[in-house]
Amino acid sequence: MTICIFPGTFNPIHEAHLKMAEFAVLNYGFDKIIFIPSYMPPHKELNKNLAKHRLNMVKLATAKNSKFEVSDIEYKQEGKSYTLITVKEIIKQYNVSGKLNFIIGTDAFDKIDTWYHADELRELVHFIVFPRGISSCTKDGWDYEIAPMSFIDISSTDIRKKHNDTIKEVKDYIERHELYI
Known about the structure:
Distance between the termini: 41 Å
Radius of gyration: 15 Å
Number of domains: 1
CATH topology: Rossmann fold
Strand content: 15-25%
Structural class: alpha/beta
CATH superfamily: HUPs
Number of strands: 6
């Protein structure tokens, strides 16, 4: 089975995230995309109380696609969500041989050199980089390719403000739990 992970804050998950994952399945032949909502990302300030809600919203958003799976690996760790630790655990859990495929946006990939033990991460991962606005996106020494998918201009920040451009089940969840008010 060929897998690809899709870690992120998903604060909240939206249509662009799903379209990226669908594109990866169709264009790279992955059997499974594993969404991994972070518990507490080291590079962002997030309300810790939203972690369980973000995990639940990802489960709701991905439920209709049998190629999508959601991992609570970072939620269970209940600490800072370091990608390297998650990658090592996924490689072990899924018995991955070779590099682990990893979906990432250009905005995050631009900062990859600042991540926890980036040099070690570089040896374990093949990145599929999706366009997010303007980016030079050249990284010497990293194993990556640019996904030939057009940029979809949807922002989690805008969704938190307006509750638009997201999946119906997620929008209903946000309203039911009075999130992002």
